[in-house]
Task: structure prediction
Amino acid sequence: QVQLVESGGGLVQAGGSLRLSCAASGRTFMGWFRQAPGKEREFVVAITRGGGNTRYADSVKGRFTISRDNAKNTVYLQMNSLKPEDTAVYYCAAATTGWGLNDYEKGYWGQGTQVTVSS
Result:
């Protein structure tokens, strides 16, 4: 069982920045997903256990950066140049079998943190 604790959401103006954190109880593949009101949950970014490989959704490439501190079992999502369309509940996810979407679906999820970007 992997437990995840997220923090760092909030309200920011368009063009601003936020950093999300996710502390895990183990060293796993990690990722962030988001769900906007009335929309399905979507993939944002994933990172391998060692942190050497990352994968981003096209909508956030060049603006968001994922990193991890394995000594703290913590993953960070630095979000820059935020847009109103980034407004969503952001979920941290952990997977033990791989870093594909199905792996995260079978894995563990945080409680979610709200990110609101005002125009």
User: Anything to note?
Assistant: DSSP finds one helix and eleven strands in the chain. The mean pLDDT is 95. Residues 33 and 44 are 5 Å apart (CA to CA). The first helix runs from residue 101 to 105.
